[in-house]
Amino acid sequence: MDEKKELSKEEKREIAREKLLTADKLFKAGEYKKALETVEDALDVDPENFYALAYKDRILNVLESEQSVEQPVKEKAESKEDVKQKTQQEALRKLKEQQLKEAEERKKREEEARRIAEEELRRRAAELEMLRKAEEEQKRLKAIEEEKKKKEEELRKKREAEEQAKLLEAERARKRQLEEQERKRKEEEARKKAEELERKKREEAERRRREEEEMRRKAEEAKRKAEEELRKKLEEEKRKKQEEEYLKSEETKAISRVREAKIQEFLEQAGIFIKENKFKEAVIEIAKVLLIDPKNSDALKLEETFQQEQMKQIEEEFEVKKKIPRDMIIESYKRTLKEAWIDGTLSVEEVTQIEMRKRELDISEIEHKDLEREIQLDCYEQNLREFWKDGAITPEEQDWLDILREELRITPEEHLEIERKVRKEVT
């Protein structure tokens, strides 16, 4: 028994199976009792073996069938061994009762075994159902977890994308801000440069205005002084004449000598001035003589001589101009224009000089305009070439060129054409 208890459930089933195989062989050979004993041995090893219990019922049914067939024969052959037979029958009855009792017990055990088996099956089915549900729940939880992880991953990616978008937008905003700051800085620099250029232009215009005003003032002052000097001289002469007239009655001879001396002095000086071609000074000296003696023949003759000399000089100059080739006259006039325009806007003196030169060289207004435009372009090109000699133009030089371009009325197209020409030459 101790050994049976030590056997595992699987081992017991294996032993019972082998005994049932042996019992099956005995049953097929007709040895029912031995087969029954073998089945009993199998039940001793595994009392709850369903197959062993069923096989035992089968053997008992076969044994009962054999006894029911043999019973009539035994009744007819009742002999002197009846007592023995009765004893055997009683034993058989008891055996049968015992067997029935055992059969009932087996049936109960079988039912109990079936009940236990069914309960075990139900329990196992419940366990399997629980396991299935647990697996399904685990799968569901796993699916939920995976879905949760998926959503979290999507949310994380979405957040990362949003963060990336925010960073990108922030970077773009920063770039836009920097670009705006750079644009404002450049605008401010351009504004300051324009203001500085405008200031320089105003200063330059103011300087030129002051220079022109100063020149006009000096010219007016010189003119005023000359007129004042002439007026004083005339007044002095008049005063002397009045004095002479006042003293004439008493000092007629003396005054006459002095007057003659003065007239002679003025006439001599006028002659010197005429020889030196100083006609303006000569006119003043002759005027002095005529102021003293309006009918002085020498003064009138000298005045006539002066006029003849002046006309002769004009004719000579005209003849000289006629002999000079027109190209040389034009070149001479162009030099005058270039000297005046090389530094930009003309001063009053330069305008006067150009007008005088234009009359002297007999330059028409149409020729003047054409030559002046040619010289303006040439002056701008010369200034530009000078600035490009070192390969670059400084900001100060650029400012000066802007002013010069405005004063010389150089168009943007003319500037580009001249600059290309100059840069090609210097490179």
Describe what this molecule looks like in 3D:
The longest helix has 194 residues, at 82-275. Helix content is 89%, strand content 0%. It has twelve helices and no strands. The radius of gyration is 77 Å and the shape is rod-shaped. Residues 1-5 and 73-80 have low confidence and may be disordered. α2 (9-28) packs parallel to α4 (50-76), α5 (82-275) crosses α7 (297-323) and α8 (326-341) runs antiparallel to α9 (348-360). It is mainly alpha-helical. Among the domains are: 2-71 and 93-145, Alpha Horseshoe (Serine Threonine Protein Phosphatase 5, Tetratricopeptide repeat), CATH 1.25.40; 324-427.
In short:
The protein is an all-alpha fold and about 425 residues long.
| Biggest sheet overview | none
Q: What is the mean predicted local confidence, pLDDT?
A: 77
* Number of helices, where a helix is a run of at least 4 consecutive DSSP H or I residues: 12
The 3D shape can be described as: rod-shaped
Could you tell me the radius of gyration in angstroms? 77 Å
Report the structural category: mainly alpha
Helices and strands, in N-to-C order? HHHHHHHHHHHH
Quote the CATH topology of the domain at 2-71 and 93-145: Serine Threonine Protein Phosphatase 5, Tetratricopeptide repeat
Give the C-level CATH assignment of the domain at 2-71 and 93-145. Answer: Mainly Alpha
* Low-pLDDT ranges: 1-5, 73-80
Assign a percent range to the helix content: over 70%
How many β-strand runs?
A: 0
Q: In angstroms, what separates the terminal alpha carbons? A: 124 Å
